Fold this protein.
Amino acid sequence: MKTNDKKPNIGIIIGSNRPSRIGRTVAEWVLKEMRNNGLNLNLIDLAEINLPFLDEPEIPAHHNYQNQHTKSWSETISAYDGFVLVFPQYNWGYPAVLKNAMDYLYDEWANKPVSIMCYGGHGGFQASLGMKLVTQGLNMYNMSINPPLNIDEQFFDEYGQFKDIDAAFARYRQPIQALSSEFIDLLSK
Ligand SMILES: Cc1cc2nc3c(=O)[nH]c(=O)nc-3n(C[C@H](O)[C@H](O)[C@H](O)COP(=O)(O)O)c2cc1C
C-alpha cells in the first residue's frame, strides 16, 4: 500500500503493434478518460518497447536476466503499481506481442491490480476470458471493472481508423472513470 504523498503509477499497456493498428488511439482515449488528480497515468507502447520473442535462457521466475532488453523491461514494469491492458481480440485470443511481453517477467507483475480492456466485436469476450487466466497465473489482482470495448464497422473510416472515438465509446466513459477511482481506493491508502 502507498502513502498519500505518492500517487499510484498506472501503466496503460498498448497490446497491439500492427502498422495500421487502432490500439494506440484506443489507449490514448482510455488515458484521457481515466485522467484523475490522484493517479499518474502513462502509456506503455509495446511497438516502441519492441521486445524480441522471449530469448532468456532461464525462466523468468528465477529473475536472473541476461539480456539488456529484459533488464530494461523489468525496470519499466517494476516502476508501476497497477496496469490497464488495452488490446484487441485476435482469433478469439490476445495478441502474441502482449503475451510475449508478459511472459518475459514474473514477480514484477505479482500482486499488482490489473484491468482488462479488450476491444473487438462483442467486446472481445473470448480474449478477455483468456487474459484473465494469464493475469491470475501471474498472481495479479483482477480489478472488478474491466470494460469490454465493443467495436463496429460503422465506427471506422475508409482507412480503418476511428471517425469519432468519443462518440463511438461514449458509453464506456463512466465505467472508465470509475476504474480510476477503484485504483485510487486500492492503492492510495
Ligand atoms: C489477426 C486478426 C485477428 C482478428 N480476430 C478477431 C476476432 O477474433 N474477433 C473480433 O471481434 N475481431 C477480430 N479482428 C478484428 C480486430 O478486432 C480489429 O482489426 C482491430 O482493429 C484490431 O486491433 P489493432 O488495430 O489494434 O490491431 C482480428 C484482427 C486481426 C488483425
About this structure: The radius of gyration is 16 Å.
